[in-house]
Amino acid sequence: MQMLMPKPQIFVERTLALIKPDVVDKEEEIEDLILRSGFLIVQKRKLQLSPEQCSNFYADQYGKVFFPNLTAYMSSGPLVAMVLARHSAVSYWKELLGPSNSIKARRTHPYSLRAIYGTDDLRNGLHGSLSISSAEREIRFMFPEVISEPIPAGQRARDYLNLYVKPTLLAGLTVLCKEKPADPMTWLADWLIEHNPNKPRLQHQITEEEHQ
């Protein structure tokens, strides 16, 4: 029986995480839990939103009874915004957070972050994006200076691999076979970094004297 090779895929996904104002003092502790759960913190900033900015961020909740209390709570002090990345980041982050109501979370998901750091349904400690599309929107809101490119999938992902990844990898493996280094994995990693086709080329090297 012929073995079918799996189609190439891109697994990295991003989501937005917020440490809300009432638990900002637990920032380092929470970040340690995030990193130990397999996430990479790609971007991070501490900021304080105005009530108007909070209203815009939670625009999909507008008109609900708790909306005024939500915007008042989220604008009551500084918060920490982070872009988290890993395989299936959105769903894994939601799982780590637990139910939105911290009281319920302590009953059903006692080891979740909201069970540990949250107080009730409103003051639940942390925020997570509900979907990939909402994650991209929220990341653009919190990090407007970052260019957010859509993650390729399906045929676009295969085209990207065939156009940019495979030719460089094939060239590196060819040279690897000729060189036969003692540590092939490290050698190949260094070679790929050096020959990255997307690596920026500096037109002019600024010396320390010129900078001063």
Automatic annotation (TrEMBL):
Keyword Nucleotide-binding attached: no
Record bears the keyword Kinase: yes
Domain of life: Eukaryota
Gene Ontology, cellular component aspect: cilium
Single GO term (MF): hydrolase activity
Pfam families on file: Dpy-30 (PF05186), NDK (PF00334)
Compartments reported by the entry: Cytoplasm, Cytoskeleton, Flagellum axoneme
Subunit description: Component of the axonemal radial spoke complex 1 (RS1), at least composed of spoke head proteins RSPH1, RSPH3, RSPH9 and the cilia-specific component RSPH4A or sperm-specific component RSPH6A, spoke stalk proteins RSPH14, DNAJB13, DYDC1, ROPN1L and NME5, and the anchor protein IQUB. Interacts with IQUB.
Protein's recorded name: Nucleoside diphosphate kinase homolog 5
Organism: Pelecanoides urinatrix (Common diving petrel)
